[in-house]
């Protein structure tokens, strides 16, 4: 393995190569790895409502500030994730007894407080995350219930008012594989654009496997984004080697390791072929396999990332480099 070629350098200035990080993993070997292989980070949890949003007008900046300071000191780009997401709703919000108008004002104040605080430091935001259901249709959430179906438009407008320069993304998963979901995501974006709502890009999370989606399925999704003049972020890339439909392996076999290398190469090669003006970043969702959220999410062993538990590069890393 050519150990002096790093991911960020091979991507050169065409796009960032990022990783999801946590504040408790910013020293030692992590720091060395992050600052040599990557030039962008996304907070795995520190920029979500559950961390910051303690109550109406009550914000805890400790964790996000620590991450932003680390990125600034190490000259790393930061992608802000995520202003509004149905999963990380703080407990106090679910028992909110105020009016819908008061709720909407609290959300506006939150979005503007966060985006204003990091304006000039955080260059891009997932303004709304996962607002469309698997199989299509707008996902029900406290935001939809209390703010109405134009809550998505409002969030993008508020983020733009707070930071005229940040790139504003819509972020979601499984749209290459799920064509009804894909259709409704782009229908939603078409409506935003026809109403002159500011949206700059789409994040395709890319939590995928060695078997799915196919390159062609990903290309169809990317083409729809580019047709709409949207910047494309592969925002949470990891590649499962224990996909549905295959016999589960309890170690990273040579066969699955090689399949993963090929899939990383395929995905990165596809991203690399996107016209430069529509590129932003490929962000892998974590550094070392044992830390991957996939293991808990799918409740089975898996090795979805680029580095093993000893921080050594896997074949997946070779595949990533081959795709650049
Ligand atoms: C996940 C984190 O990786 C976990 O550590 C956390 O417990 C839950 O959230 N889509 C997203 C990410 O947009 O924010 C999620 O991250 C994974 C799915």
SSE topology:
Blueprint: H1 7-11, E1 16-21, H2 28-37, E2 40-43, H3 49-52, E3 53-55, E4 58-59, H4 62-73, E5 77-85, H5 91-94, H6 100-117, E6 124-129, H7 142-147, H8 151-162, E7 167-172, H9 179-194, E8 201-204, E9 207-209, H10 215-227, E10 231-240, H11 254-272, E11 279-284, H12 293-298, H13 315-323
Parallel strand pairs: 1-2, 1-11, 2-5, 5-6, 6-7, 7-8, 8-10, 9-10, 10-11
Antiparallel strand pairs: 3-4
The structure holds (3S,4R)-3-hydroxy-2-oxopiperidin-4-yl beta-D-xylopyranoside (XIL).
(3S,4R)-3-hydroxy-2-oxopiperidin-4-yl beta-D-xylopyranoside (XIL) binds next to loops.
Figure out the total of helices: 13
Characterize the overall form: globular
User: What's the total number of strands?
Assistant: 11
* Widest beta sheet: strand line-up: 1-2-5-6-7-8-10-11
Proportion in β-strands: 15-25%
What is the succession of H and E elements? HEHEHEEHEHHEHHEHEEHEHEHH
- Report the radius of gyration as a whole number of Å: 19 Å
Write down the overall mean pLDDT: 97
Helical residue percent band: 40-55%
Low-pLDDT windows of residues: none
> N- to C-terminal separation?
15 Å
Structural class: alpha/beta
Distinct small molecules: (3S,4R)-3-hydroxy-2-oxopiperidin-4-yl beta-D-xylopyranoside
Main beta sheet: 8 strands, parallel, barrel
EC number: 3.2.1.8
Family: Belongs to the glycosyl hydrolase 10 (cellulase F) family.
Domain GH10: 1-323
Protein name: Beta-xylanase
Structural notes for this entry:
The two termini are 15 Å apart. This protein has 13 helices and 11 strands. It is globular, with a radius of gyration of 19 Å. The protein is α/β, with parallel strands linked by helices and 324 residues long. An 8-stranded parallel beta barrel has the order 1-2-5-6-7-8-10-11, surrounded by 5 helices. It binds (3S,4R)-3-hydroxy-2-oxopiperidin-4-yl beta-D-xylopyranoside.
């Amino acid at each position: 393995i050519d150990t002096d070629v790093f991911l960020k350098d091979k991507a050169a200035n065409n796009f960032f190569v990022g990783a999801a990080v946590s504040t408790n993993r910013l020293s030692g070997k992590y720091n060395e790895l992050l600052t040599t292989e990557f030039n962008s980070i996304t907070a795995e949890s520190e920029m979500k409502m559950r961390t910051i949003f303690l109550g109406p007008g009550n914000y805890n900046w400790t964790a996000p500030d620590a991450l932003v300071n680390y990125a600034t000191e190490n000259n790393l780009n930061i992608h802000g994730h995520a202003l509004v997401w149905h999963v990380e709703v703080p407990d106090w919000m679910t028992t909110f007894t105020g009016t819908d108008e008061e709720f909407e004002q609290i959300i506006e104040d939150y979005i503007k407080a966060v985006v204003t605080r990091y304006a000039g430091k955080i260059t891009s935001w997932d303004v709304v995350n996962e607002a469309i259901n698997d199989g299509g249709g707008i996902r029900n959430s406290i935001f939809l219930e209390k703010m109405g179906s134009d809550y998505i438009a409002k969030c993008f407008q508020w983020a733009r008012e707070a930071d005229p320069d940040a790139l504003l993304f819509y972020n979601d998963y499984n749209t290459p594989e799920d064509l009804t979901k894909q259709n409704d995501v782009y229908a939603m974006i078409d409506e935003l654009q026809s109403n002159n709502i500011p949206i700059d890009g789409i994040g395709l999370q890319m939590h995928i496997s060695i078997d799915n989606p196919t390159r062609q399925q990903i290309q169809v999704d990317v083409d729809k984004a580019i047709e709409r003049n949207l910047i494309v972020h592969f925002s949470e890339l990891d590649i499962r080697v224990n996909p549905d439909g295959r016999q589960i392996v309890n170690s990273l076999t040579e066969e699955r390791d090689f399949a993963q290398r090929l899939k990383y190469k395929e995905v990165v090669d596809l991203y690399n072929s996107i016209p430069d003006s529509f590129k932003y970043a490929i962000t892998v969702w974590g550094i070392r396999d044992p830390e991957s959220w996939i293991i808990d999410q799918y409740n089975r062993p898996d090795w979805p990332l680029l580095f093993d538990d000893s921080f050594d590069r896997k074949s997946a890393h070779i595949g990533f480099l081959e795709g650049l």
